[in-house]
Design brief:
312 residues; 35% helix; alpha/beta; 17% strand
Length: 312
């Protein structure tokens, strides 16, 4: 029976994740789908992550690399993968039990899609695997038509997918990789690439649990506006249109860039980085010259420049 099912490769990057990596892996090991390989790429951990992973024995393929970021770790996992389908989990997140049967069956029956992704839930740091709700693997998933198909042009406005809930055909990943230059927002860039190259199916089943980790890099202020950089990079590379001809207008893009730069400026302002916030609000002003809010915060930054705490 196992040989009749396509191999699924699950890639899990980990960095100093001893607290959660065991339960993360257990949620994948426990999947009832039999033909799978689990690849854990350790991104230079200095804690006991390795020992926790190695306790799973030959159920897991463990690889260590010097710290280079999760994008490099994930790409390394993709290069090592042997499966027809590729899935991902992060070292502090959990999968819903029994999800793989449903996703694999969907992609086998719907060759027009290159990705099948599901819903995910935000959970707290104390959420346990025993509380995860199993997927009914015997039933066919319901597809959300409004969030499926050629959706590239829609992702500039809202990114609603999560990589830990996705299953990807390996041939799609011949054209798509995680970008190591984006230390924050690399998943968003990855989804834009996927959406440019293939149709995406959004399924209604809940496939994963995303743990809100206050220590995560994604919650720390950063010197770069990664959201804006990723949007600009993909517009330069792929344009503003999906492959079915639908596109996002320049007017809407200007408004989105205004929001992205204003929100980034506000984050910097709250951190006391007034000099850097001033630059961000000025970019926002140029994107939407008639918006009063950017002018108001430009003045507030100028008033507080003598108190600036921006990093050098």
């Amino acid at each position: 029976m196992q040989n009749d099912l396509p191999l699924v490769s699950i890639i899990i990057p980990v960095y100093n994740g001893e607290k959660y990596i065991g339960e993360c892996i257990q949620s994948v090991v426990d999947q009832s789908y039999p033909n799978k390989e689990i690849i854990v790429v350790d991104d230079g951990s200095s804690d006991h992550s390795r020992q926790v992973v190695e306790n799973f024995g030959d159920q897991v393929c463990y690889h260590y690399q010097r710290n280079a970021g999760s994008a490099v770790a994930r790409n390394s996992g993709i290069e090592r993968a042997r499966g027809r389908y590729i899935a991902f989990n992060d070292g502090d997140d959990l999968w819903s039990p029994n999800r793989l049967h449903q996703q694999v069956r969907f992609l086998e029956e719907h060759p027009e899609y290159g990705v099948a992704t599901g819903r995910f839930q935000h959970v707290g740091q104390h959420f346990k695997l025993k509380s995860a709700v199993p997927v009914d693997s015997t039933s066919a998933p319901v597809i959300d038509e409004a969030m499926s198909g050629w959706v590239y042009h829609t992702l500039f406005e809202c990114s609603w997918y999560h990589i830990i809930a996705a299953l990807v055909r390996v041939e799609v990943l011949e054209k798509v990789r995680f970008n190591p230059d984006f230390r924050r927002g690399q998943d968003y860039d990855f989804w834009l690439q996927l959406a440019h190259h293939t149709r995406i199916a959004q399924l209604e089943s809940n496939y994963a649990y995303y743990r809100k980790n206050e220590e995560s890099i994604s919650h720390k202020p950063h010197l770069r506006n990664y959201r804006a950089e990723i949007m600009e990079h993909n517009l330069r590379t792929h344009g503003a249109s999906s492959r079915d001809g639908r596109s996002i207008s320049q007017g809407k893009l200007n408004r989105l860039f205004y929001n992205v730069w204003f929100e980034y400026g506000y984050e910097l302002f709250l951190a006391g980085w007034y000099r850097r916030a001033l630059k961000a609000f000025n970019i926002a002003r140029r994107k939407a010259p008639l918006s009063f809010s950017s002018y108001k915060f430009i003045i507030r930054c100028l008033v507080k420049l003598h108190q600036d705490r921006s990093p050098a």
